Amino acid sequence: MKVSIKDGKACEKILNVEVDENEIRREFDEFYKSIGPQAKVPGFRPGKAPRNVLAMHYQNEARESVLKRLLEESYRKAIQEKSLNPISFPTLEDVDFKDTRLSYKARLEIRPKIKLSQVTGLSAAKAITELKAGEVDEALKRIQESLVQFQAVEGRPAGMGDVVIADYICVSEGKEIEKRSDEWFELREKEFIAGFSAQLVGAEIGKEREVKVKLPESAQPKEVAGKDAIFKITVKEIKSKILPVLDDEMAKEAGEFKTFAELKEKIERDLQAQKEKEAEAAFEKSLLEELLKRNKIDLPEGLVARRIDHLVQDFLQHSRARHGKTGEISKEEREKLHEEFSEEARRQVHLAFLLDEIALKENFQAAAEDLKKKYEELASQIRQPAEVLQKYYESHEDQMEGLRDRIRNEKAIAFIKKNAKVTG
User: Fold this and answer.
1) Most buried one in 40, 83, 305, 424, CB count within 10 A?
2) Pairing of strands 175-186, 163-172
């Protein structure tokens, strides 16, 4: 076998492979030897047909099988001979197969050459995490709202702050676009559709009221977004909101708290912890952006393209689940999404290579203790026993390797942060 190699695009190698006649003949011999005992040929007992007769009846099957095996074996030997470690399956071109000769080109992508310019001494700002005035009160108000009770209103029309239960039909440009029964509307000053609540103030039970609004630009379906609409509303009930008093009784109802002071302290701790988590995440993101700027590398375009495909597909799945849609999008829409996700895909591939290189250089490993902690962390998130997760990963090697990579990357990020400078 003859193998030559040349550079292609960035992170690409092109192998020219020629398989000689002896290897081809040997594969044909192996094929006919393997099918001979079971081959059924008219005029011969099973397994008794001579080689030349088998070749007449199984020529197509032989060529297909032999070509497949020769391509697999010759490619494996070629990358070993040239000490290559591909990061993707090859693209085969110019395959020329005859009974005495096989030649082809194999385009493959390899890991980029990475020379880390700066990893330590990166700098980024970290936000101050002090609670602002009113934040605890806002959180208490949300809890208070979650424990609200509703009392039927009699003898008066609906007022701001009430809840109206009604049937309605929504019409836009003469077409009915929505119809619902027993819908709850809270009359509030700030709302999704401007002016909606104000027009329901004064509505009475059993009477119909028309509410004329302009639909928001984000309204669904898209065809009615930003257009004028009329809601024909029949009021069935009016309820007033009864908020609990901010006291010990409300605290007990809100959770396992004995006093209102305990509830307030817990809210303060949670808010402070959330602020610190957000500040740390923003600090980390800024450092990683700095890492990308200071460590430029060539990127394998095939790998980037596959990452774009993954991001687009993930976006479409979430979008369909959120809006309950099915079916394919147009070619133009898909191309637009590919363009939108291109930069993020390049960023992710770039960062993955840099973190992997840092982990290699610093010899970060996913030790047994690291895996145990990760099982426990993931288990708490999905509410499954850690032992169940461990068995799953240990029985799926590809998933296990992904988990090890994740741990190594986390160690690389921790290393970057430990050796970074915090600016004002």
Assistant:
1) 305
2) antiparallel
List the beta bridge partners of residue 185: 164
Report how far apart, in Å, the C-alpha atoms of 316 and of each of 110, 289, 324 are: 30, 27, 11
Pick the CATH number of 2-109 from 3.40.720.10, 3.30.70.1050, 3.30.70.260, 3.30.1490.20: 3.30.70.1050
180 neighbors 168 (Cβ within 8 angstroms)? yes
The CATH code that applies to domain 260-423 is 1.10.3120.10
Percent of the chain with pLDDT over 70: 99
Q: Which two tokens stand for residue 383?
A: 């509410």
Measured CA to CA, the distance from residue 32 to residue 28 in angstroms comes to: 6
Calculate the dihedral angle through the C-alpha atoms of 412, 418, 420, 424, rounding to the nearest 10 degrees. Answer: 130
**How is residue 354 written in tokens?**
């840099």
Domain boundaries of the chain, sorted by first residue: 2-109, 149-242, 260-423
Angle, helix 301-323 to helix 331-362, in steps of 10 degrees: 120
Q: Which residues contact 383 (CB under 8 A, 6 or more apart)?
A: none
**For residues 338 and 345, what is the distance between their CA atoms, to the nearest angstrom?**
10
CB–CB of 153/162 below 8 Å?
Answer: yes
346-365 confidence digits (pLDDT tens): 999 999 999 999 999 999 99
At 77-90, the pLDDT tens digits run 999 999 999 998 99
pLDDT of residue 258: 94
Strand partners, 5: 15
The CATH T-level fold of domain 149-242 is Chitinase A; domain 3 (3.10.50)
| Whole-structure pTM value | 0.77
